[in-house]
Specification:
This protein has 258 residues and is α/β, with parallel strands linked by helices. It has a single domain (7-257), classed as 3-Layer(aba) Sandwich (Rossmann fold), CATH 3.40.50.720. It has seven helices and eleven strands. The protein has helices spanning 16-28, 67-77, 94-114, 153-167, 191-200, 220-233, 237-243, and strands at residues 7-11, 33-38, 58-61, 81-84, 121-125, 138-140, 174-180, 182-184, 217-219, 246-250, 256-257. The protein has a seven-stranded parallel sheet with strand order 3-2-1-4-5-7-10, with helices on both faces. A two-stranded antiparallel ribbon has the order 6-11. Helix 5 (191-200) links the parallel strand 8 and strand 9. Helix 1 packs across helix 6 (220-233), helix 2 (67-77) packs across helix 3 (94-114) and helix 3 (94-114) runs parallel beside helix 4. Bound molecules: nicotinamide-adenine-dinucleotide.
């Protein structure tokens, strides 16, 4: 028996990807009530790119490392699916990644499990970087192992969080992970602003490798679509059996290169 997605909670929903999650959920799943949970508020002024009505979004200000904050939001929103897309940015101290990506994700798992009469599925935004250790990756698929030593603390803690989410999969709580590589599109705060800052400083005359290195990029709207699909399908038993406890690369094209 299929079940319609009536309510979703987007943890990290005020971020770059988060706003596109709101946009795509409101377009592709119009009967779903959208709730956002974030430490920072939704922007006061949205880019004209977005078409959703912020007044229709219920916002919870909270920290995902707090069991109380997450519990309150789950109970109030009565969300069948939690989409956890929050993470600190690149380049921060290790303890921040440990706190948010590892402890925070464990907290989201535990609170979701305790409230499995409400939450039926957890979708986690992982990262393609979980299999990257600085060496070339060619023709990778989801069977590619984690490296013994990760590229950095961000990727290491994303891998630990991903493993915890996948291990939590059960008949009571379906879990699924999505692994985008680089994400680009309207509202990006890291990639293009970073390129622009380097260009402004004249830092353009360097080359890494033999100039043939490829990197995988996905448009943010496509990455958001993948999350909507995962959330919707997780409630349909025919698909749930296939995606529960699985992780999926999200890419514009196969194969995946770093
Ligand atoms: P972002 O920084 O724009 O958004 C993350 C959001 O999480 C922010 O709104 C932030 O306030 C929120 N957040 C952080 N800590 C929190 C906490 N303790 N409690 C509640 N909210 C918290 O980042 P993004 O680029 O939109 O990334 C979204 C997700 O996608 C992340 O999980 C990231 O690891 C993953 N990802 C991003 C990229 C990329 O290129 N941007 C690539 C691969 C994976």
């Amino acid at each position: 028996m299929s079940q319609e997605l009536k309510s979703v909670l987007l943890i990290g929903g005020a971020g770059f990807l988060g706003l596109h999650l709101i946009e795509q959920f409101s377009k592709l799943s119009p009967n779903t009530k959208i709730h956002v949970f974030d430490v920072r508020p939704l922007p006061e002024k949205l880019s004209t790119y977005f078409t959703f009505n912020p007044e229709e979004i219920k916002f919870y200000k909270g920290d995902l490392t707090s069991a109380q904050d997450v519990t309150d939001a789950i109970i109030d929103s009565q969300c069948q699916v939690v989409v956890h897309s929050a993470s600190p940015m690149h380049g921060l101290p290790q303890e921040i990644y440990e706190k948010v990506n590892v402890n925070g994700t464990n907290n989201v798992i535990e609170v979701s499990k305790k409230n499995s009469h409400i939450v039926k599925a957890l979708v986690y935004t992982s990262s393609a970087g979980v299999i990257f250790n600085g060496q070339d990756v060619k023709n990778a698929d989801e069977r590619w192992p984690y490296p013994e030593v990760h590229m950095d603390g961000y990727n290491e803690t994303k891998a630990i969080a991903e493993t915890a989410v996948l291990n939590a999969n059960s008949p009571q709580l379906l879990t699924v992970c999505l692994r985008p590589a680089g994400i680009f599109g309207p509202g990006d705060r890291q990639v293009v602003p970073g390129f622009r800052a380097s260009a402004k400083l004249g830092q353009s005359k360097y080359q890494l490798g033999d100039n043939n290195n490829l990197f995988d990029w996905s448009y943010v709207g496509n990455v958001a679509d993948a999350h909507v699909l995962a959330a919707q399908k997780s409630l349909i038993p025919e698909y749930a059996n296939k995606i529960g406890g699985e992780t999926f690369f999200v890419t514009n094209d196969a194969p995946l290169y770093f």
